[in-house]
Input
Amino acid sequence: MTAALLEVAGLGAQYGRVVALHDATLAVAAGELVALVGGNGAGKTTLLRTISGVRPASAGSIRFEGRDITRLAPARRVGLGIVQVPEGRQVFAPLSVEDNLRLGAYARGRERSAEGLARAYRMFPALRQKRDLPAGSLSGGQQQMLAIARGLMAEPRLLLLDEPSMGLAPLLIAEIFAAIADLKRAGATILLVEQNATQALKIADRAYVLETGRVVLEGSGATLAQNERVKAAYLGM
Amino acid sequence: MLETFLQFLFSGITAGAIYALVALGFTLIYNASHVINFAQGEFVMIGGMATVFLADAGWPIWAAAPLAVLLAVAVGVALERLAIAPAREASTVSLIVITIGASILLRGLAQLVWDRNFHTLAPFSGEEPIRVLGASILPQSLWVLGGSLLAVLALGWFFGRTLLGKAVIATAHNRLAAELMGIETRHVMTLCFALSALLGALGGVLITPITLTSYDAGVMLGLKGFSAAILGGMGSATGAVVGGLLLGVVEAMGAGFLSSAYKDAIAFVLILVVLVAVPRGLMGARGAERV
Output
């Protein structure tokens, strides 16, 4: 692949002495939806946090548009367009829905924020009705929508989604995946971390399988969905 | 009887307004970092002492007071940058111990740079008491109340209306998510120390004409402000203001009707009573605004 937007090479990360990520190598091209699947503790969240810069890398490099960003501060990475929607939603519960969205555009400035708000409310009309309510009062599914909408406010060039379906009812999971598929159709570049491997592989162009902090398999979403090892380990077949 | 009561009420509210400012300073830093900044009282002292010495050097009060507040803000920023930020990974308790060390250092520096004497400041607009229903109010009390009210309103505007204020709330609530939104959480922490220093120093400037100040004036004011914050519920801005005023009034009533020897003891007994009855403080319950 030549025109990769994100290139991660030999990336390592650790919590104290515990190695959470070991020699992880992957790439995401512009416009691609890449899924990252793996069990609990495989290092998926650590990988995303290291890409966002909120965890330091202990080895390897991260390049964005060919530029080395391994040591760049998290806020600068957001400025470049690397935006993460964190695991477990993590909306700012005491602040209103609209304030949450505005903070999503913190790195973008006031004018772009107004445009973004209109876009977010078009995409998730339920949020417009609740714009003045504290984010903590929303249901789990609405909070996930808010978390995604908040991420989009930052006008991501690479969107990192961490477990967007976690803890949601099946109907809502379908809705969230439909929203992700819409984003992809609109041309977004997405790196999606999911334990719900069936759904993730279905919509992904390509996917990586992470096990105990290493990338053990990669291929197109369809190919991996047929892989015996993946089927047994993650698809429950 | 009514006059006496009003008299104590006025002096209680005046002292309480200062406690409230100090308590708000505690609240700000506590919410942003869960650190209880025991150097908070020293900001009050710096505000008062610096104004006194600038005024003695011939500066007019309108220039001396803002400069003194600015000095305290610089000290607050330096405290965060030089002592708290480098120890970011340390436990909260270690950070609190650092602030205790900083308070001792600041008191020492104040003795060295200034002196060990008590000082006062001329009231901003005369000493002629204003009569209200038989009780008298010092004009300086009105300065204290007006200044504190303005500070509280400005703070409310900052956190309620500005994106930066909301970024501070967001950081206090969820540091990781705030970082992922591109908020520079390091700067947020520095900002909180600067704001707390500003509040404390403002209190110091306003109260000095009434109570005198000295290099160690911050110890008791810091403790009272801390008590007020606990009383109102640590972490609640409304609680800090309510706690401060309540503490000031109860203290003044106790000193007036019982014995002034118990003035300080009353404050601490009040805390014990409230903490036993409502362990999370008056406004510490769920639903209180977190700033």
Notes: Chain B is about 75% helix and 0% strand. Confidence is low (pLDDT under 50) at residues 286-291 of chain B. Chain B touches chain A at residues 163, 166-167, 169-170, 173-174, 176-184, 289-290 (CB under 8 Å).
